[in-house]
């Protein structure tokens, strides 16, 4: 089954404790992206990647890091989480070129930073 | 950055009624997408539009890509309880950019 998976689905942590949220897709998509969703603000892009070893900042990259060592994986790293990073996070992927606007989303990771 | 204005923010409708929501932008987009998000889930793509003026249907859903490329609408006919959720529009400007700009969503409630 074609899908985007994220782990963990739920995470409660404390300020300053480094964490990684994993994202994996099995559709051989070149493009992958991370979003955060907050009430009243909708979905905002954090980082994206057009291919292996190619990453770029989205609209709200501060406090986050990403890496793209393999095509299928795109982990989101919070080196020193803070309470304002409490949010619902989504990973998405799509093909490049053609009907590339059709991004497919993972199920989400709800992060709480105390 | 680019912004999308999506309206209405929320709707309460009776089962069986038709629903209409729209998105407008001050910028031109080359792709318009409509997603639905159920509680606790990620957005699921409903309809993708790639040409100005394009009208596309997916079951009871119909979406159109505005001729000016600055707007799009989504209609749901004969609503049913499982239509409940948050609907998002998203635009992609193209020209080598694959970033999506999202509207803030329309929360739909269907009264049985």
What report would you give on this structure?
The complex is a heterodimer of chains A (114) and B (112). Chain A has strands at 4-7, 10-13, 19-25, 31-38, 42-51, 54-57, 65-66, 76-78, 87-94, 104-105, 109-113. With 114 residues, chain A is mainly β. Chain B is 0% helix and 59% strand. Chain B has no helices and eleven strands. Chain B has strands spanning 4-7, 10-14, 19-25, 31-37, 44-49, 55-58, 61-65, 71-76, 85-94, 97-102, 106-111. At the A-B interface, strand 5, strand 9 and strand 10 of A face strand 4, strand 5, strand 9 and strand 10 of B.
Topology overview:
The complex is a heterodimer of chains A (114) and B (112).
Chain A: E1 4-7, E2 10-13, E3 19-25, E4 31-38, E5 42-51, E6 54-57, E7 65-66, E8 76-78, E9 87-94, E10 104-105, E11 109-113
Parallel strand pairs in A: 2-11
Antiparallel strand pairs in A: 1-3, 3-8, 4-5, 4-9, 5-6, 7-8, 9-10, 9-11
Chain B: E1 4-7, E2 10-14, E3 19-25, E4 31-37, E5 44-49, E6 55-58, E7 61-65, E8 71-76, E9 85-94, E10 97-102, E11 106-111
Parallel strand pairs in B: 2-11
Antiparallel strand pairs in B: 1-3, 3-8, 4-5, 4-9, 6-7, 7-8, 9-10, 9-11
Largest sheet entry of chain B: 6 strands, mixed
Radius of gyration of chain B: 13 Å
Q: Taking all residues together, what is the mean pLDDT of chain A?
A: 93
Order of helices and strands of chain B: EEEEEEEEEEE
Shape of chain A: globular
Could you name the ranges of chain A where pLDDT drops below 50 across 5 or more consecutive residues?
Answer: none
Beta-strand fraction estimate of chain B = over 45%
Distance between the termini of chain A: 36 Å
* Coarse shape of chain B: globular
Percent of residues of chain A in beta strands?
Answer: over 45%
- How many angstroms does the end-to-end distance of chain B come to? 40 Å
SSE run of chain A: EEEEEEEEEEE
Biggest sheet of chain A, open or closed, and with what strands and sense?
7 strands, mixed
What's the tally of helices of chain A? 0
- Name the structural class of chain A: mainly beta
Oligomer: heterodimer
Radius of gyration of chain A: 13 Å
Protein structure class of chain B = mainly beta
Structure summary, number of beta strands of chain A: 11
Helical segment count of chain B: 0
